[in-house]
Amino acid sequence: MRIATWNINSLRARTDRVVDFLARHDVDVLALQELKAKPEQLDLARFEEAGYEVAVHGLNQWNGVGLLSRVGLADVRTTMDAVPSYPEDGTGVLEARMISGVVGDGLRLWSLYVPNGREIDHPHYAYKLRWLDAVRAEGERELAADPSARLVFAGDFNVAPQDDDVWDMAFFEGKTHVTPPERDAFSAIVDAGFADLVRPFAPGPGVYTYWDYQALRFPKKEGMRIDFALGSPAVQAAVTDARIDRDERKGKGASDHAPVIVDLEF
To answer: 2-264 — its CATH code?
Structure first.
């Protein structure tokens, strides 16, 4: 089974790219982030015509996540225990940042769009840390209930866990994505039993998944590695290959993220 994750940065703007990507890479299941639309605003029939079941979660023009699967899609969920709302002053809502389903032979795949954090002293930063902790807690509960569970947390984590996951640490001094609390929150998910499925096949430095549209970051090779597929022990044992499709960041109308692809054989 081939799974992939991709922050598409507006599915309405890039439906054709997604359809072409699915065919070109023969993808069985795709986790999407940053759809930037409500479900009724999307042309989901394009994916259904290509043989995919579709589940999307979107509340407005921000955030939004989805799953496309041609190997079944059951028990769809759009939240976890302890996921915070935003803002956290009692007026907030649960943002459309997560969706999961059971695909293939019993694999639960989560598509996650982790909050950005904005600035270190911003309330969104604390929200981001609590959000990541909810993911850790979910993973721990699943593995405590069934150590052989097939579970993947995939998506845009908005964390660069290692120094070589950004082109220049000096540039990020005092900024989000690389701070110790963010990295600790990411590491806590890994320590709960969920390893990076891609890095062993695509090690850094200089291996990125995101390049800002501004300042010619892509041609300058000034990127960040912030998109991941973190798998439980049963999934780790099933990985046969993994890669980042940097070519999808090229050309007119590209997303600012590249897809991450993982091959599994259970």
So the answer is: 3.60.10.10
What are the tens digits of pLDDT across the range 6-50?
999 999 999 999 999 999 999 999 999 999 999 999 999 999 999
SS (H, E, C) the chain: CEEEEEECCCHHHHHHHHHHHHHHHCCCEEEEECCCCCHHHCCCHHHHHCCCEEEEECCCCCCCEEEEECCCCEEEECCCCCCCCECCCCCCECCCCEEEEEECCCEEEEEEECCCCCCCCCHHHHHHHHHHHHHHHHHHHHHHHCCCCEEEEEEECCCCCCHHHECCHHHHCCCCCCCHHHHHHHHHHHHCCCEECCCCCCCCCCCCCECCCHHHCCCCCCCECCEEEEECHHHHCCEEEEEECHHHHCCCCCCCECCEEEEECC
